[in-house]
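Backbones bend. We report:
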Amino acid sequence: MPERDGYIPGVPCWIDTSQPDPETAAAFYRALFGWELEDVMPPGSPSKYYMARIRGGDVAAIGGLPEGAPAIATWNTYIWVASVDEAAARVVAAGGRTLTEPFDVTDAGRMAVFADPEGAVFSVWQAGRHRGARIVNESGSLNFNGLNTRDVAAAKRFYGAVFGWQTLSMAGAELWTLPGYGDHLEERDPGLRERTAQMGAAGFEDVVASINPIPAEQADTPPSWSVTFAIDDADVLAERAVELCGKVVAPPFDAPWVRTTVIADPQGATFIASKFVPQTRSRSESAGRAA
């Protein structure tokens, strides 16, 4: 797929990780994914923001913690909007909270940070010079985003009101869809709809994220947004992460369409790493839920 140059409103478009020690995180991810890293903060700045690239195309970033934030490493999801200020109004009207008011990030764009009614944190991005992830769905780049939630019905009301998202059930999972997104992708990649249908996944071209219900027995698991990276081999990557002082939270396993693993980096930020495996598409819905 050609390099991306922007998104349409309502589509996750960028990820970055906030780290107590961004230099240590940069070393880990450079070795794990082969990222090219550049600190894009002005010379002499006390903070760091490492832009991660593959073949020169932006894929993610690594930064320090915001002032006053808890010393917890996280991965952050950004959703493309036409107007950050209008999005902020929709969030509040739908029962969410504003954690960081809209502000300009030099000429790169404008952003804000919100929490949904359950407390899952996400950001929105109004593009200026920075057009989101340029390379996606390649090994070491963003592949998917997911909402971990206890109240699926409430999440549907909130994200439907804020971004116009709808849902689709497929292979035992429930997925967020954005009407018209498939048309946008078809323009960029003619024949996408037909290929998706031939694989037995008609409608997936409109999907923008997943919904992951938190089991009742995981009472201490907070609602959150997750990020998934595309990889070439889940088993090899899990072994490499441990060699680099990361931790395997969930060993590699097969789920519908993928072989996947969950990793925590050395400072505790977790992410999913997933290899597309069409041969696993026939797994039953119950197997998919168990995984």
Notes: Residues 22-33 form the longest helix (12 residues). Residues 284-291 have pLDDT under 50 and may be disordered. The longest strand covers residues 97-105.
